[in-house]
Fold this protein.
Amino acid sequence: MSSSNLTYVLMISVALVSIIALVQVTTKTKFELKTMVIVSFMSLLSMVLAAYLSIMIPLFGFPSLKFGFSQLPIMISGALFGPWWGMIAGVLEDLLELASGTVVSPYIGFTLNKALIGIIPGVVFLFAKKYPNQLKLLILGMVTLLYGSSILFILNTSSVTASSVTYVLDGPVKIALISLSLAILPITYFIYRKLKNKDLQQSLFQKWLLSVILIEVLINVILTPLWITQLYGIPFEIQVIVRSIKASFFVVLNTFLAYFIYRSLQRLKK
């Protein structure tokens, strides 16, 4: 590990320990050994999934679009043990990637992303306990935001220039992109109705659906393109279009996977 990476790891580690101490003093949160072990394992599992079981697709020559499920262990940590533990799991996974060399250079924006991936499910699960009747309304709003904004973005983008090459988004291209974004909706509804007639815990499923949509919109569609634009200069517009289509599919995959894995792991809290 390079000296700059080591310095970054030490700085983030000190900041993380300070936050843990502050949280423990101000909120009386218990940091039990069993929870620490489970969260550490989840962080390690996430790092392994990111390093060896994810596919990175380059956009304009830069590695900027990842397909994989490394977010799931961090999300589940936040849902099981709360937002603070989710944040710890996310930051720890980022530090493990740096320490192992799977990530070449650190960037505070990506560290923030990892922390938010753990925080968001924890906050959603706490919110659902206090305001269970608001979940459906929030889900409807976020689904409308995700698909509506992506469609408007595609319709209002006529061309994108990258690496001195201009890509024209004419009528047929826009129709194809919008169709890809919307194709997953009827499939999702069909699967949901089938499961609803069996053993689906509706409230739990709704918590995960809202968590995953928030992560996809805030982190994968908005924040990550911002960081990549700053690092590599890849146009923000084309990233949003590509990631919106990807998000429409991964919302479904990650929701169902997180739901079933979480149900299996709930006994770990006992």
Summary: Residues 202-232 form the longest helix (31 residues). The radius of gyration is 19 Å.
